[in-house]
Write the structure tokens for this entry.
Amino acid sequence: MAMDGIPVPDPRRARFARAALKRIRQRRLREYEAMMVTGFTRTCPICGYIGEFAPVGEPPRLDGVCPLCRSRERHRLFKLWIDRRGNITKEMSVLHFAPELAFESILRARTGRYVTADLLRAKVDLKLNIEALELADRSFDLIIAHQIMEHVDHHKALAECFRCLTPGGRLIVTTPVIETWETTYVNPDMTTARQRLLHFGQKDHSRYFGRDLKDHMRAAGFDLYEFVSVEPDVSTYALVRGETLYEMTKPADAAPRPAKKATKTMKKG
Ligand SMILES: [Zn+2]
């Protein structure tokens, strides 16, 4: 019998496997328990806390979360980007999808116009579908969309963000990517929550990006810069090694696209 298309062994072997699994899991739990406290001193670039961090995630990532502001690795990477490359000024208008609370206050204080958006969440300024933005062309200087692209049709989302950015404007994206995969893994047969968890790493993800994501970003018209976590930042701020924040810039000489309906259809794959 197979559940969700996942093969399972015969009953006798399954019983043996269950007993072995229990022993392995108990041993791992004890090991994890011992590892939870690393004793390392980390710095949070968001709230300024200096001290021990806590584990987060499944399986636990050691020192993943700041105990004071609850920031995770990708949040701290984004804060480093803001500090080092953001060039965020009072003249800028910013659109922030699925806004993280810590950044709302930081960005609202530093920018001229700060707008939060989400399709499902209630406490945002605008209810927006990133695949079909009900916004005027060239209406924002900076669009932030962390952990969004893996949930949506990213070709449509990239095209729409490009359209709504001012020339020279930037789109900031983080998303799970397997750099060693040449192409993005999509599988329309994976429709249940369990299948998506198994194949895409989370029950509401619809694909797992390979490095061709960068081709898709360039094909949408953007110039691409990769802000990557490296040492000594990784050990100082407790970042995920090699995690990438994609900074996409709409070229200053980008011609306005004619009409929303006529938005260029992106090539798949
Ligand atoms: Zn913090």
Summary: Helices lie at 11-35, 73-85, 101-110, 154-164, 193-200, 213-219, 233-237. Residues 226 and 246 are 5 Å apart (CA to CA). The first strand starts at residue 2 and ends at 3.
